[in-house]
Every structure is written in structure tokens, then in C-alpha cells.
Automatic annotation (TrEMBL):
It comes from the Bacteria. This is SRPBCC family protein. Gene3D superfamilies: 3.30.530.20. Pfam families: Polyketide_cyc2. It comes from Nocardia aurea.
Length: 156
């Protein structure tokens, strides 16, 4: 059995997307759009009208297993950076963070970095899922996001 201390607790993936940062950011900052690009097949739906505009906001997401998560936005820079801490409704976040960073790379291309940080996770029940969230799963989200942002017809 792998010792938890041997696993990377901050996992990230990145790639360039042929779309401007504003277009990509709209897909990330609007929770109703997130299930369309989720590479973990974990997000079911979010009500429209929750577009994030700043740190301190909370958006609500229903998961594929029927659970509901309140996501507290802890980092926000319009068009560049957004990060949130998920939690069960009316509970303190257990300490895992999702972050998106967008960097213009010139000529309508944006470098997208997606990070999952579970280094402060306090809920042992979430460890199995945290350990299963690999760079490949993060890259799958970026790939889905790219298909949407680049206007691919076959985007889910």
C-alpha cells in the first residue's frame, strides 16, 4: 500500500488553447458551464446565474452522485485566475482546492494551467477520491475546455 506522504498532493496539468483568455474564463467562471468540460465526470449541474465575479462568492454545484457542493471562491482575477474550496452545504471546506490560471500566449492563444491541491485536506473520507485525481484527469478537463473554447462541433 502506498504511503500517503509519497503521493503528490498538488497535481497540475497545462496546455495551450487556441482561444483568448476571456472566452476560456467565461466557461470556467460560469458554474452552469462546468459540467460540459469536467474531465472527472463528477459534476452534474449548476443553476444558471451563478457567474463568479470575485473572491468570497459561493456557487452551488450538484455532483453526479447526487451530492451538493458549495464552492467558496478564494482566489479571483477576472480573465486570469479563479480557485475555490468545495464543501458540503453549510460546512467548513475540508481543505482541497481547485485552481485555474490563464496566461495569454499571443495571437489568440492562452496557456491554461489547472491545479488540484489536496495538501490541506482534513477529511479522511475524501482521500481515496483525492488520490485518484491525477494530472491526466486534470488534462482531460483542459482538453474538454479547449474543444468548447475553440468551437469544436463535437464538444460534449
Amino acid at each position: 500500500m502506498t504511503d500517503i506522504s509519497e503521493l503528490p498532493q498538488v497535481v497540475s496539468a497545462e496546455r495551450e488553447i487556441a482561444a483568448d483568455a476571456e472566452r476560456i474564463f467565461e466557461l470556467i467562471a460560469d458554474p452552469a458551464q462546468q459540467p460540459r468540460w469536467d474531465g472527472n465526470d463528477n459534476l452534474n449541474e449548476a443553476a444558471a446565474g451563478q457567474r463568479v465575479r470575485g473572491a468570497g462568492e459561493v456557487f452551488v454545484m450538484a455532483l453526479t452522485n447526487g451530492a451538493v457542493r458549495h464552492n467558496r471562491v478564494v482566489e479571483f482575477e477576472e480573465g486570469r485566475r479563479i480557485a475555490w474550496l468545495p464543501s458540503e452545504p453549510d460546512q467548513e471546506p475540508p481543505g482541497h482546492l481547485w485552481r485555474w490560471e490563464l496566461e495569454p500566449a499571443g495571437d489568440g492563444v492562452t496557456r491554461v494551467i489547472h491545479t488540484y491541491d489536496w495538501s490541506r485536506l482534513t477529511d479522511p473520507k475524501r482521500l481515496v477520491r483525492a488520490k485518484a485525481t491525477t494530472a491526466e484527469k486534470l488534462l482531460a478537463s483542459i482538453e474538454n475546455l479547449a474543444a468548447l473554447a475553440e468551437g469544436a462541433e463535437n464538444a460534449r
